[in-house]
Design brief:
Blueprint: H1 10-20, E1 24-33, E2 43-46, E3 51-52, H2 58-73, E4 78-85, E5 97-105, E6 110-115, H3 119-128, E7 133-139, E8 155-159, H4 163-168, E9 175-178, H5 183-196, E10 201-204, H6 208-220, H7 225-229, E11 231-232, H8 244-259, H9 262-265, H10 277-284
Parallel strand pairs: 6-7, 6-9, 7-8, 9-10, 10-11
Antiparallel strand pairs: 1-2, 1-5, 2-3, 4-5
């Protein structure tokens, strides 16, 4: 007998979506006045194509879903307060009034493209696994990902038969780390990443002599000095420690500040964020 899986409740869906770095909105009813389908504290999770739990159904709920998906489609993040009259705006006959807070999370903002599944690449993938980054991990070898544990939901492993196609499919503004088993492949990847023109950063493993050779060849390919100067090589500074973990640790430490979302971490002194405090005072006083 086939058994249907029980649908996820809102907190199960929220935990999974956060874990996988996927975009979603948390809708929380915070006030009730008069007759309303649900009471304060009711939650609903909204994604671009699914809804988990309910605020009571009807036109009011569809309006909440529409507002949430408009935020997701526009890449909007943060909190907003919405008011619904269950008779006017919603066209329902309850006659009550509710306020709903929408908390919009647009998904992982950082995309890391990691090329190479050798010793250092494997250490980097393990180090970034707990971070809120989407990892696109490539290797051209048939057995490049052999003997690895199952990837986390935010890690996507891909064999790379074609360098140009792999670089072309990267998400916009990806951070690129190149550390394959082959110098020719490394050069082709850096060359292709520079041709894209929209990579957030490019890092290359190797010695200073390797980079001097690559620089001359990249100039011959027609890349500007300014563009080439943006490539970091060698990546990180392990203080001379060449152990894979040490190299990976220094590379991730170097990359972390580049991946920081400045809007959320460099708020101006005294700047107000979140829902306007005056609006909240009017609700709870």
């Amino acid at each position: 007998m086939n058994r249907q899986h029980k649908p996820e409740c809102w907190y199960e869906a929220l935990a999974r979506l956060q874990r996988e770095g996927l975009p979603h909105v948390v809708a929380t009813q915070v006030t009730s006045q008069g007759s309303t389908p649900r009471e304060p504290g009711a939650h609903m999770i909204i994604t671009p194509d699914h809804v988990y739990d309910t605020l009571g159904g009807g036109t009011f709920e569809w309006q909440v879903i529409a507002a949430a998906r408009e935020n997701l489609a526009g890449g909007k993040a943060g909190m907003q307060l919405e008011a619904f009259s269950l008779g006017g705006r919603s066209g329902q006959c309850c006659g009550g009034f509710v306020n709903v807070i929408l908390e919009t999370w647009p998904g992982s903002a950082v995309h890391l493209a990691l090329f190479g599944a050798g010793h250092v690449g494997r250490e980097i993938a393990q180090l970034v696994a707990p971070l809120d980054w989407q990892l696109d991990w490539y290797d051209s070898r048939n057995d490049g990902f052999h003997n690895l544990p199952e990837p986390t939901p935010r890690q996507h492993r891909r064999q790379m038969p074609d360098i140009e196609a792999a670089v072309a499919e990267l998400a916009e503004h990806s951070h690129v780390l190149v550390l394959t088993h082959d110098h020719a492949e490394d050069f082709a990847l850096v060359n292709a990443a520079l041709k894209r023109g929209d990579c957030a950063s490019i890092g290359l493993i190797g010695s200073r002599s390797k980079w001097a050779s690559f620089r001359r060849r990249l100039e011959a390919e027609g890349h500007s000095v300014e563009a080439i100067d943006e490539v970091r090589c060698p990546i990180g500074d392990s203080g001379g420690n060449k152990a894979p973990y040490a190299v990976a640790l220094s590379a991730v430490a170097e990359l972390q500040p580049l991946c920081t979302r400045h809007n959320s971490n460099h708020a101006k002194r005294g700047e107000s964020r979140g829902i306007d405090s005056a609006a909240l005072r009017s609700l709870f006083h």
